[in-house]
Amino acid sequence: MAFTRFIINKEVIFDSDANILHSVEDESIKVTLNAPTARCLKLLLMSNGKVISREEFLAEVWNARGVVVSQNTFYQNISLLRKSLEQAGLSKDIIVTVRQRGFVLASNIEVTPCSNTEGNNEEGGIKERIKKSGYDEEIKVVNRNTLGHENFFWKKSVLNIPAWILLVLIVMAAINIILLFFNIII
User: Fold this and answer.
1) Where are the beta strands (DSSP E) in the chain?
2) Residue 167 pLDDT grade (very low, low, confident, very high; cuts 50, 70, 90)
3) Is the pLDDT of residue 49 over 70?
4) How far is CA 28 from the centre of its chain?
5) Of residues 99 and 156, which shows the higher confidence score?
6) What is the spatial distance between Cα 63 and Cα 154, in angstroms, rounded to a whole number?
7) pTM of the predicted protein model
8) What is the DSSP string of 123-146?
9) How many degrees, rounded to 5, is the angle at CA 24 between CA 19 and CA 28?
């Protein structure tokens, strides 16, 4: 079962499909993560307390997608992740640095994974999961289909490259055809 949502300390919900953190108590608090930062968080949440090395992060988050980044980019994403978690309402010390080994979630962090197929609908499934875990207050979960987060220009196409690159190539080809046509006429 693929988990796409995680409840962190019964305080914040992370939707890995939408790359959004939002507070359980205050629905106005929403923090949007960039894709690599969201993948770093998902890797940490799914690690079950295992220390994740820098090499594992680089391999899973960037190299698996054919992207090579510097160590500086990696550390910037971890820093951004810490700030985003704090903005969403979690402790600053949720991500622990294990010297010369990597990163792990703090031992006092409770993570409850949820799938989008739980319950009769997304909202109901997550609410039930939170209630089962001991959080009885009524919450409103944002449906990812209403967020408008899906941006055509960053989606991958059939050729596994961003759609905006295909669009640029098509425009360039059209310009070349037009120029060729005018050269033949003149």
Assistant:
1) 5-8, 12-15, 20-23, 30-32, 95-98, 102-105, 111-114
2) confident
3) yes
4) 19
5) 99
6) 18
7) 0.62
8) HHHHHHHHHHTT--S---PPPGGG
9) 75
* Amino acid identity at 72: N
How far is it between the farthest Cα atoms of the chain? 78
CA distances from 109 to 39, 45, 51, 62, 164 (A): 18, 10, 14, 26, 39
Q: How many Cβ atoms are within 10 Å of 33's Cβ, its own excluded? A: 24
| Opening angle at CA 39, ends 122 and 121, nearest 5 | 5
Q: pLDDT value at position 10? A: 86
* 115 pLDDT tier (thresholds 50, 70, 90): low
Contacts of 155 (CB under 8 A, 6+ apart): 162, 163
What is the rounded distance in angstroms from the CA atom of residue 173 to the CA atom of residue 180? 10
- Nearest Cα to Cα of residue 133 among 1, 26, 3, 6: 6
Mean pLDDT for the chain overall = 77
Q: Is 23 helix (H, G, I), strand (E, B) or coil?
A: strand
